Amino acid sequence: MKSILAVLAAAAVANAHFTMQYIWNNGADGGHNNYIRIPPNNNPVTDVNSKDLTCNVNGLSGSNVQTTTIPAGATITFEWHQHDQRTGEDPISGGHKGPVQVYIAKAPSTAASFDGQGAVWTKIYSSGLLNPSSQQWATDVVNTNSGKHSVTIPSSLPAGEYLLRAEIIALHVAQSYPGAQFYIGCAQVKISGGGSANPPKISIPGTYKASDPGITVNIYNNLQSYTAPGGSVWSG
């Protein structure tokens, strides 16, 4: 029965892909596709070794993308949708169950010229399986909240330009690899104020492995716990 449910889920959501389309700065809507490195389509990344895992397809440069200024300690909200508009449908499709994560990386110079390669990323948010009894996932909360999830930017981060990387991992066909679907959006921001923290850093790609239990996993087998890839959240 579990395998049948998995097949039906995969078929039902095969075309229900999505992208990050808005960022909000302390409650202010930044506008459609502003400050975001826009991929060519809404397809997911499935190869954990691909550079597309960093900031999605064609996401290694943001030369044509504006950079928005945010204060240290700001609340940034990311908003996702299946299609290129706010249509009222499920923003990311109810069948796409999985974790929601946010990383940040400081650019050596400008965010627009930063490719995000190497050990530069710090995880500042992660939410996964919220209720094993009801099998409620972080993605369910995003759908309930009209495609939105928020993170507080640690106030101890130094001032400067950064990439903000939001990630949703859809696990509906993740029983074998490649199966997990990585939906990635990178925004370009300039942090004002801030402190002098030097947080722990990982590489994306580089840290994620096909064998990670948060990447290759059967979510239709009465899953009671979930460990997202990428290690622990740094709170600042």
Write the layout of secondary structure elements.
Layout: H1 2-12, E1 19-25, E2 28-29, H2 52-55, E3 68-71, E4 75-81, E5 100-106, E6 119-127, E7 129-131, E8 136-137, H3 138-144, E9 148-152, E10 160-170, E11 181-192, E12 202-203
Parallel strand pairs: 3-11
Antiparallel strand pairs: 1-2, 1-4, 4-9, 5-6, 5-10, 6-12, 7-8, 10-11
InterPro entries: AA9 (IPR049892), AA9_LPMO (IPR005103)
GO biological process, one term: cellulose catabolic process
Catalytic activity: [(1->4)-beta-D-glucosyl]n+m + reduced acceptor + O2 = 4-dehydro-beta-D-glucosyl-[(1->4)-beta-D-glucosyl]n-1 + [(1->4)-beta-D-glucosyl]m + acceptor + H2O
> Spatial order of the strands in the main sheet?
3-11-10-5-6-12
Using the alpha-carbon principal axes, give the shape: globular
**Which structural class should the secondary elements be placed in?**
mainly beta
Q: Helix and strand succession?
A: HEEHEEEEEEHEEEE
